[in-house]
Design goal:
By secondary structure, the chain is an alpha+beta fold. It has two domains: about 1-30; about 40-155, START domain (Alpha-D-Glucose-1,6-Bisphosphate, Chain A, domain 4, 2-Layer Sandwich). It contains four helices and seven strands, in the order H-H-E-E-H-E-E-E-E-H-E. It has helices at about 5-25, 30-40, 70-80, 135-145, and strands spanning about 40-50, 55-65, 85-90, 95-100, 105-110, 120-125, 155. It has a seven-stranded mixed sheet, with helices on both faces. The chain is globular.
Length: about 160
């Protein structure tokens, strides 16, 4: 009969061997990583219509397989080159900036999931009498995707 220490050692060796086999065979992907892979490049968009003050809000988000710092730098560079907007706030430490055009504003934020995956979130606001920012926030996401060589499309 094996001692408790010997059984524990054998169990550990079998467990390590099983994990190595699964990892090498490609079956070790977690459900989260499979879901995230399907979500990469899919732009989700939501619009909240007219508020009491007459304005509206639009939101767009997308997961990219790129480091957050690179995504933020690319987006900020595109905003700086866009003569139609002015940058009214920037916080590189939090990977956030805000642009304005007339009464319209948009806040751009990049959130890292890990070293190679990040999420872009844009919230746009149109003031009273201004048209919706929905096409603008989606177009901003698409411009960042294109600049980074990533394929993105609006989700269903």
């Amino acid at each position: 009969m094996m001692s408790m220490a010997a059984r524990l050692c054998l169990f550990s060796a079998v467990l390590v061997g099983l994990m190595a086999t699964l990892t090498l065979s490609g079956f070790a992907k977690t459900p989260w990583s499979l879901i995230a892979h399907k979500a990469l490049g899919r732009i989700e968009h939501m619009r909240e219509s007219q508020q009491a003050n007459g304005g509206s809000y639009d939101f767009a988000t997308v997961l990219l397989d790129a480091p957050a710092d690179k995504v933020f730098a690319t987006a900020l560079d595109l905003a700086r080159k866009n003569i139609a907007v002015r940058i009214v706030m920037q916080d590189p430490g939090r990977r956030r900036f805000q642009v304005a055009q007339g009464d319209r504003t948009a806040t751009f934020n990049v959130v890292p999931f890990n070293e190679e995956v990040s999420q872009i979130m844009i919230a746009g606001h149109a003031g009273p009498g201004e048209d919706s920012t929905s096409s603008r926030v989606v177009q901003a996401v698409l411009r960042v995707c294109k600049e980074m060589g990533k394929h993105c499309q609006v989700g269903d």
